[in-house]
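Objective 1.3, modelling of assemblies. Example input:
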Amino acid sequence: MMTETDHLIAVYLARVDQAAIRLPAARREELVNDLREHIEIARSESEVDSEASIRTILDRLGDPESIVAAADTQTDLPRVTVPPPVAAPPGRNPKTVWIIAGALAVAGVVVLFCLFAAFAMNTEISEPAPGPAMTAPAEPAVELPAQEPTTTAPSGS
Amino acid sequence: MSDEAALTTALRRGTIEYCVLALLDKRELYGVELVQQLSAGLGMTTSEGTMYPLLSRLRRNGRIATTWREAPAGPPRRYYTLTPDGEAALTHFRTEWVTFRGGVDRILGTEK
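Predicted structure (tokens):
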């Protein structure tokens, strides 16, 4: 009789534990412990320690899957104030530092390249600027001799 | 049927934690007592277990606290108590709730 009720409880808690596999480890453990505690106390309070009374306690607790589903909805708030992940980064810190350093180095190179490119384009733009200025006076100089033949042509005709 | 269940769940979602705080405002309770009073009061007698994740979150958020007490019979009990933060949250909710309920009642025509 005792072993049968113990078995019922063990099976129920194993089902909760299995369903809670998607929860963070600490919360999963806490949930199973809370339910075990509830069952033990409810059992100690029930007038007869029978299989039927254990079944009633477990039925009232409800389906393990819906209990874990309720735990899912209760993770919303704590996610905002998750302190445990703050403790986790120290382990990954060296890697993270290198990743950040690498990203910064790449960004630096890109920025330098952009600056260089912009500077080069500026000089390219400013170079043609004097170009037309040089050719502007040069063109009339070329036209002038060209005008000379035209002026000489009418004069010739 | 499942629509009705979803409605009930949605209605409970924002209010049930304040029912926890209000029960603990009267006196400290251990898990089994708290969960049974809550489920009896809200007609959730087949899902007592779903309240433990809620209690866990309230504890993490500092609205309730727990203390172990020896029991005259059986294993020691973990009593849930209201913290000052929890008390403040309950006071705030009571005001919000009266306003909210009044607005809904006026729109639904369910005022008395």
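The domain at 2-108 of chain B is CATH 1.10.10.10 (Arc Repressor Mutant, subunit A).
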